[in-house]
Amino acid sequence: MRTAIAGGYAKAGQFDKALEFAENLENEYHKDEALWAIAYRYAELGQFESIIKMAPASISAGDDPLAVIAELMVSQELECDRIIAITKTLENEFDQRALLRSIIYQYANTENNSDKIIKLARSATDESIKYVALEHLAKSYVEAKDYDRVLEIAKSIGLEKVRVTSWKYIIPPS
To answer: pLDDT tens digits, residue range 68-83?
Structure first.
């Protein structure tokens, strides 16, 4: 019932009332559920910056807020430029990297998203994101011991020096 009230306010576009209602709930579980209802409505409207403003500070239900935001972003099929712009609204770089890793993971767990992973990796300035992307992009090639293809993929996303030692290990050069 409490989630429905907050969700109703959000669906009516009354986000201030929805947030006020949710924040005043005493039961943490109900509060989290109400905040997620608001977050999902923001996602439906493409207002991910609003989710980012409220989520890390407000939502604590068992899930990682950044992973849920990533899932919402992928489900809305946002363009990579928009994803990068939204990610940059996070205050610290650690959270920015965590959100990008979660988005790559979401893409990797659905079919036919290699192009999106490549675009995100190419636009990422942090090399660790490029390695996360490479790990997901090259997995089948490493399993087949087609290391040349892995190196081609690495170069295509801006990683010039990569060592592939086995299926589990794609590592930066030492």
So the answer is: 788 888 888 888 888 8
